[in-house]
Specification:
The complex is a heterodimer of chains A (393) and B (160). Chain A is an alpha/beta fold and 393 residues long. Helices cover 44% and strands 12% of the residues of chain A. Chain A folds into two domains: 7-41 and 284-386, Aspartate Aminotransferase, domain 1 (Alpha-Beta Complex); 44-281, Type I PLP-dependent aspartate aminotransferase-like (Major domain) (Aspartate Aminotransferase, domain 2), CATH 3.40.640. The chains are: A alpha/beta (393), B alpha+beta (160).
């Protein structure tokens, strides 16, 4: 029989998270600091809208680009929150999660051999989606000394004549890093100089602490170069609804819509009706959730400090990215031992790119009670390692 | 800082002052002082426990009573309310807008006990025009907490 598989797909390794997930799921009583989703339920008024739409029999396809009412609300929301204006009829596309939008953007913009600059450690999809679209992923390793921000210098070092897209995933999963306006301005300059496009994944934008999130698309000259990706999963606690959106100049969005039309048809109708309410009536809910994450963020950082785990201060998303370099173990080894010895699941930094070596991703989307228990165990583990280290000296 | 403290302890009055200070990013002593201050100013009036009595063997009856009154000269609503709220079996008294004047929430061991309170003590008060007693059959949610549901984290242990 012939090889049934494409040569491209077999070269792509499975997600590093998947590998660890399999180990964790074998351990029945493990507790976790490993989730990438909110601990809140979707606010009831949003769920109610979804239920209501089902009761009224709204069970048909919607327009390919999504319900017009939803696109209008997305327009209003982005205007209100980011000072951006996208035409609901030509520049907004509702997708199945932010992940679909990443895939669409890559496929709509890349020719074979085009290079995509991917700052890492970052979300697991950028590289595979690049490769599947025929592009070449060029990782840009970020460093803790820059608080895991992308700097103009680092970007310049990786640019070649083939560079086409820069992925800008901030606030960052897994690091919690944010790019403030002044940092984005520095990047925007390089983007214009080298005629790049930006895929700005702002799914954690609402979960920015301290100052408000700034979109690179709102900087002068950047809107026409940017595919803005966002969604409902994180800010509105709607992961299971699978709903996101992309906003881009019409010339790009039109082609993304074409792929979406053939591959997906339209995003789930029930989710779209619920999302209209999310866009219109949830500013208070989002604020409340943000405040709650911020409190737990402080709690986590304080606990790290007490147990002597080095960690830069994350200012976005709901992750911290502590360094475990001083223990002389790989991230994989540390995570595995922590799981075996204390039954706490965390994600090794390497699941997000090679430059995640020496770090762990720890999520604080948990109740204070769960955090306390898990951090207690982590502290005990660290103490044991430190005891051994000292004993050996 | 006050609003932030209150928002947390309204839901969890047993939280460690130390943990509370860390969550809020404030100094522990400052938080403790602020709480003491708020107790003094009667902003914080008590620290009660939310008990779902249905899960115990204790029998309890809770009634909500609508009371209509005519306030008399020299004795406004406040005076009347006082004559009602002084009874230890009365859990809460609210002055209402609308069709009646007071809501009285009463806790008794039996229905007879509640009935006796209404007929012997509440109804005969001079200014009371009428009462309507409603017994609580089941509590679903109280003080913002859902009582009939146990929370379970249904998320997968590891997700991207």
């Amino acid at each position: 029989m012939r090889d049934p598989l494409s040569k491209t797909i077999v070269t792509i390794p499975p997600s590093g998270i998947r590998k660890f997930f399999d180990i964790v799921s074998e351990m029945k009583d493990a507790i976790s600091l490993g989730v990438g989703e909110p601990d809140f339920d979707t606010p009831w008024h949003i769920r109610e809208e979804g239920i209501y739409s089902l009761e009224r029999g709204r069970t048909f396809y919607t327009a390919n680009a999504g319900l017009r009412d939803l696109r209008v609300e997305i327009h209003n929301y982005l205007e209100r929150r980011c000072g951006l204006s996208y035409d609901p009829d030509k520049e907004v596309l509702v997708t199945v999660g932010g992940s679909e939008a990443i895939d669409l953007a890559m496929r709509a913009m890349l020719d074979p051999g085009d290079e995509v600059l991917v700052p890492q450690p970052s979300f697991v999809s950028y590289v595979p989606c690049t490769v599947l679209a025929g592009g070449v992923a060029v990782p840009i390793p970020l460093e803790e000394k820059d608080e895991f921000r992308l700097t103009a210098k680092k970007l310049r070092e990786k640019i070649t004549p083939k560079s086409k897209i820069l992925v800008l995933p901030f606030p960052g999963n897994p690091t919690g890093a944010v790019m403030r306006k002044e940092h984005l301005e520095e990047i925007a300059k390089v983007v214009e100089e080298h005629d790049l496009f930006v895929l700005s994944d702002e799914i954690y934008g609402e979960l920015t602490y301290g100052e408000e999130h700034v979109s690179i698309a709102s900087l002068p000259g950047m809107k026409e170069r940017t595919v803005l990706i966002n969604g409902f999963s994180k800010a509105f606690a709607m992961t299971g609804w699978r709903l996101g959106y992309a906003c881009a100049p019409q010339v790009i969005l039109k082609q993304m819509l074409k792929i979406h039309q053939f591959a997906i048809m339209c995003a789930p109708t029930t989710s779209q009706y619920a999302a209209i309410d999310a866009m219109k009536n949830s500013d208070e809910d989002v604020k409340h959730m943000r405040e709650s994450y911020d409190q737990r963020r402080r709690y986590l950082l304080h606990a790290f400090e007490e147990m002597g785990l080095e960690c830069f201060e994350p200012q976005g998303a709901f992750y911290a990215f502590p360094s475990i370099k001083r223990f002389g173990m790989s991230s994989d080894e540390f995570a595995n031992r922590l799981l075996q010895e204390e039954k706490v699941a965390v994600v090794p930094g390497t699941a997000f790119g090679d430059s995640g070596e020496g770090y762990l991703r720890i999520s604080y989307a948990y109740s204070l009670k769960s955090l306390k228990e898990a951090l207690g165990r982590l502290g005990r583990f660290v103490e044991r390692l430190d005891g051994k280290n000292n004993g050996g000296q | 800082m006050r609003e932030k403290i209150l928002a947390v302890i309204e839901k969890n009055s047993r939280i460690d002052i130390r943990d509370l200070a860390i969550l809020l990013g404030e100094n522990e002593v400052a938080v403790a002082n602020e709480i003491a201050e708020m107790e003094k100013e009667h902003i914080i009036c008590g620290y009660h426990t939310l008990i779902n009595w249905e899960n115990t063997s204790e029998e309890k009856v809770v009634a909500l009573i609508e009371v209509r009154v005519t306030p008399q000269r020299g004795m406004g609503f406040d005076k009347l309310a006082e004559r009602i709220y002084q009874y230890s079996e009365v859990n809460a008294v609210y002055l209402m807008s609308g069709a009646y004047d007071f809501t009285v929430i009463l806790e008794g061991k039996t229905m007879r006990q509640v009935a006796q309170f209404v007929s012997d003590k509440l109804a005969p008060l001079d200014s009371v025009l009428s009462t309507a007693t409603h017994f609580v059959l089941k509590k679903y949610k109280d003080h913002g907490t859902i009582l009939c549901d146990e929370f379970q984290d249904e998320r997968m242990l590891i997700t991207p």
